[in-house]
Amino acid sequence: MGTGGVGGYFGARLAHAGQDVAFIARGRHLAAMRESGLRVTSAAGDIHLPRPVVTDDPATLGSADIVLFAVKLWDTESAAEALRPLVADGGVVVPFQNGVESVDRIAAVLGPERVMGGVAYIAATIAEPGVIAHTGTMARLRFGPVLPMHKAAAERLAAACKSSGVDAEMTSDIRHAIWAKFVFLASFAACTAISRQPAEVLRSDPDLRAMMDSAVREATQVGRAKGAAFPDDFVARQMDFLDTLAPQMRSSMLNDLTAGNRLELPWLSGAVARMARECGVAAPVHATIYAALKPFIGGSAP
Length: 302
Hints:
Elements: H1 5-16, E1 22-24, H2 27-36, E2 38-41, E3 47-49, E4 53-55, E5 66-69, H3 76-82, H4 84-87, E6 92-95, H5 102-110, E7 117-128, E8 131-144, H6 151-163, E9 167-170, H7 174-195, H8 199-204, H9 206-225, H10 234-242, H11 252-259, H12 269-279, H13 284-293
Parallel strand pairs: 1-4, 2-8, 5-6, 8-9
Antiparallel strand pairs: 2-3, 7-8
């Protein structure tokens, strides 16, 4: 559900290996996939699916065992509602989104029994309609049960990924994994977007690096206030991770900002600032970046 960088890349890998995969897309991307197929360009190997199963209407697909849910955060509730026919026979939705509240948001629409947790680690985007461009070599999924009843579905997804050569891990503590990714992602998105710079500039400029460090510390403090058990060296690990990223890696929010598209800002820095207020902790970096980028939330060239 959502054939952008995440859904397009991992869906293509699974389909290329012979898994029964259908894609839900829209607009020019849908038209291009129908006409010329779906292409993935990647250092891990290019893929071309000449005739993928693709539609803009989930109701035409029948039932699904597992739905990889990768729409933009502003479409979460409407996309979940559209999935009702797909999961009516017991299917499970696995959100691979950037926010930290997706499991609860989707559960409010479809019921908690229909939603596992998931995290995707990848830099990929729609380079042009019908083409997904993967930057660097990082491409990994983590997922796991939120309820005991999800375990069988999680095991099936893990087996499908393994047989397809997709780097994936099933974890028993997926909520911690979601928070751990969110701390870095929200901070990286904020700092790359406000500076309009990729990872190499962000980590090599001392002032930008200090801003990133402060943003990570704020989000970590909020996570702890929300019950996430981060180790003492968690912030240092996130900054070490920043140093491993491909030099030209950009956040999806920076890509959206420069393209004049809508931003996921309210569910990233906006969410950090909101939860910080609720928990009585300070998050001035995220609050300031949220305020500075707020005029562009609806989409307009900076």
